[in-house]
Each structure stands twice: as C-alpha cells, then as structure tokens.
Design a protein that fits this description.
This protein is mostly helical. It contains 17 helices and no strands.
Amino acid sequence: MTDPMPAGSGRRRLAARCRSITEAPPFGMGVFAVILLNAALMGLETYSGLVAEHRQALQAAEQSCLALFTMEMLLRVGAHADRPKAFFRDPWNIFDLLIVTSAFLPFLRENTTVLRLLRLARVLRTARFLPHLRILLLAVGRSLPGTASFLFVGALVVYVYAMVGWVSFASADPQHYGSIGRAALTLFLLTTLDGLTDAVRAGLEISRFSILYYASYALLASFVLVNVLIGVVLNSLDEAREMEEADARARERAANPMDPAEEVRDRIAAARLALDDLEASLDLAKSVPPPAPEPELLTDRRLEAAR
C-alpha cells in the first residue's frame, strides 16, 4: 500500500541516503554498543560514592547517549521519508520512538524514578539487533493467551487441593492448612517440590493416606501442568520463528524488488516443472500393467457372458 501522493525526488534521495546508513552493519553495531554503554552507566549510578565524585561526567555521558539515540531515531525516520506509513507498521520502530521521545517530556524528566525506568527500557532495544532475543520476546507475547489458560487450570487445581487439605489437616497442622489462604500458599510452594519431603513426613504423622494426597498433587501440579506450560511455550516459539522468517523474507523482497517480467518468467518456469512432474507420473501409471483378475472374478465374467 503506497501513499496517496507520490514522494518527491528530494524525499526519495533523503530516504535512500538514510537507508544506506541505517542498513549498514557498522550502524547497527554502533547503536548496540551505545545501548550497552547506557546500561553500564545505569549500573554505575547505583554506587553513591562514585556518583558523588563523578556526577558531571556521568551526566555528560548520559546526555551523549541520549543525543546518539535521538540521531539514530531521526535517521530511521528519514529512511522512511518516501513511505512514512511503513515506519509505523514495524512495532519496534514505535517502541524505539516512544522510548526516545519520552526522555524529552518535561513531566517525565522531573520524575527521577520514571526516568530511570524509561532508561532501563532502552536495554530492551537490544532485541532489535539480536534476532534470537527478538524471537524469544515474540514467543513470550504469543504464549500469553495459552499461559492465561494454564494459570486458570493451575489455580483451580490448587484451590481444590487446598480445600481438601483444609478439611483433612486443619486441626492437626493449622500453621499450613488453618485456612484456605494458608493451604493454597503451602501448595503453591510445593509446586516446585521444595519442602515436599518435610510435608510428606508431617502428613504421615497425621494419616497414612496423606501420601496419596501429596503424591497426586506433585504428579498433577509439578509434572503434568508444568509440561503443558512447556508445550505452550515451545509451540509459541515455533510460531514466533516462522513469523520472524516471514518478516525477513518480506524485508528482503522489499529491499530487492523483483522485475515484474522476471517474476512472470519464474512463475511460468514453476508451472512447467509442475506439468513435467504430472506428465512423468502419468507415464509411470501407464507403464505399470494392470493387476491380473482373480479366478473367481474370471468365472463370474464367463457365466455372465454365457447367459
């Protein structure tokens, strides 16, 4: 989809120059280094003695990082001067634009805590330059619906077992099962199997049947549900990898547009290959002799012919 008005030659030249800069590998490596430098500066600011001694140098370094991020954002916007809508189709462009522009908002600059959180969000921009990290973040986002269903089922299992535990162990072990809240917290901590041995020993002192309670809960909550969650995440990871590969192919086609005549020739060649395969399969089918009829079928055919 193109803009309603064609871009002028000046906008095309500006976009071509900015695109040649932003698509160069040194540019990406340089921005990645600035992001890491910004993260290191935030870590240094946690040392009060160092901040008191080098406050001006740290502030100058932070301002330099902000200036470099602003320049990078301007170059990325300029690279889409001939097609502005394409800039906002990329979620990472919107994320980068919000992070950089927020540093110039007066009410955010006055709030130190919010400003530090926004600076911390710049570290997430490393996902733009690390494809594997970008795939992981996309997989986490796509796994949220499945994770919500998993949490609902997990909460239901914990609630049911907490009620059973309250009925069975409330009088003997009120510290862990004195209420539904304490029982749910106890079972939630047992999901990681940490302290399960002590819980089983305490339960055996109350009743021998408590081993069935803890064994069934450990099997259901720690093995079945956790494996379901792993399956949801792995499925989302495969989907995210496919989406990333599709986006990479789309960006490659956009960067290297194919000549319409060449595209038609490629389609014709693909159609010819398909027809050749179909013709070869038909020839193979004709060369195979038909199966011999069974004796019973021959007898039936002869009786029908005699009639």
